Every structure is written in structure tokens, then in C-alpha cells.
Amino acid sequence: MNVFDLRCGDYTLSIGKRTYIMGILNVTPDSFSDGGKYLDIERAIGHCHEMVRNGADIIDVGGESTRPGHSKVGAQEELKRLIPVVERLVMEVKVPISIDTNKALVAEEALKRGAHIINDIWGLQGDPEMASVVAKYDVPIIIMHNKDNSFYREDIIKEMLDFFYKSINIAISAGIKEEKIIIDPGIGFGKNLAQNLSVMKHLHLFRELGYPILLGVSRKSMIGKVLNVPENDRLEGTAAAVAWGIASGVDIIRVHDVREMARVAAMTEAIMKG
Fold this sequence. Notes:
8-stranded parallel sheet; 9 helices
């Protein structure tokens, strides 16, 4: 991919020059790895400052768990969790703030308060108003592949590419600029272990879409199943998956362990450039 500037409000990310680190902040009681840990606003803000000090280029804030078997929450509850944190972060943390939501109402309220990126786990195919909200505020959109089950009629990569083509058409038809689109293969969403591993093996094939790729593998069940370890013991597995992702051409990695994965990224890039 050619180097280009991804504008995120007052911030600019030079895509293609290096891997960017997206630090995860879940202000939820039930996220799979850190649920309930950052419900206190001061603790949440402090954690974000720490992630930035450790190398986070973006902070991704989520107010609804998306782990398997999660309980859905309404837009008002999601806003109640998100908005106080977003209002503080846009004032205090000097990196782009991404909002992990699939609800257009939540996205718009966060964008009104200065958020810079929308991260939609349903790739604009969930809420029919999401694309128009993103276009209205002219912000980057992360389009993630997702599915309600892990049944694929044919080759999983082909079906995923078809999903992305549909989402990209929705985005462009709504007025979202092509240079604002980022894709995410959605590891752990609508895929079983074998399928997740196959997608990881073939990450390079998504480059043909021509958009930056975000990879979210941090502490995922794929790692737990391969290594037979719980959520809090998946650092090495995450590091291996992140390194493979960077070598395969991803542009952004979404992680819990920012300091460690920033080092993995730096070392992997050094080898690739050497």
C-alpha cells in the first residue's frame, strides 16, 4: 500500500510508514478480558494516559461487550458508560479516540463530543443509519467482518471479501470517502478455531482490497484454544499473532498490552526493513 495520511480530526496517521498501536479501553462490566476493571472514570482515564505513555497511537473505547454470549445493552446504557469517558479523553489524551459501537445513535453522540474514529463490529451492515452518521462527521470508519454463525457455503476468504465489498459500497454510497475506510478481518467473530487460523494465515489476501487493515487478536479465544491458557495468560500468543499480522501487512493492531505489543511491532518492523 502507498503511504497516505489518514486524517482523524486534528490528528494525522501516516498509513504505510509504520504499524499503529490501538489501545483497548472497555468501560463495561462483562468484557471477556477486563470486564469491570475500568468502570471507575478516574481509573479509566489513568489507564488511557498509561497506554499513551507506553506507545498507544489510538485509544478505542467500548461501552458494550462483544464477547461470545454477551448481553446486549441499549443505546442509552451504552451512552451512559461511554460519554463521560469520551468527554474527558478528548480533552486530556493527545491521540485519536475511536468509539467501538454498532449503534448510529451512540456513534453520533460520541462524535458530537469530539471522538475521531468509529469502529463498527458489523461493518456498516448492522444499523442502517451508521454510514450516514460517519459520512456526516467525515471520520474514519473501521469495517469489521462479522457473522451470526461460523457456517460458510464456500471459501471463507471469498465470502469475507464479498462482505467487505458490500460494506465498502454502503460506505461510498453514503458519502464516506475511500481514504477514510479501514478493514478488520474480525478474528473471533463468526469463526471457529480452524477458520480463525485460516484467516490469519491468509491475511495478505485482504491487501487486494486496497485499504488499511486493522487486526484485533489480543487475548482472543483462538490463542486460548491453541495454547490451552486462560484470558490473563495469553501475552506470548498475542505477541506471535501480532508479529505474524505485521509481517502479513496489517497497519493497525488493537491490543490490551500496549507496552509489550509496541515492542513486538518495533522489532518485527526492524526485521522487515533490515
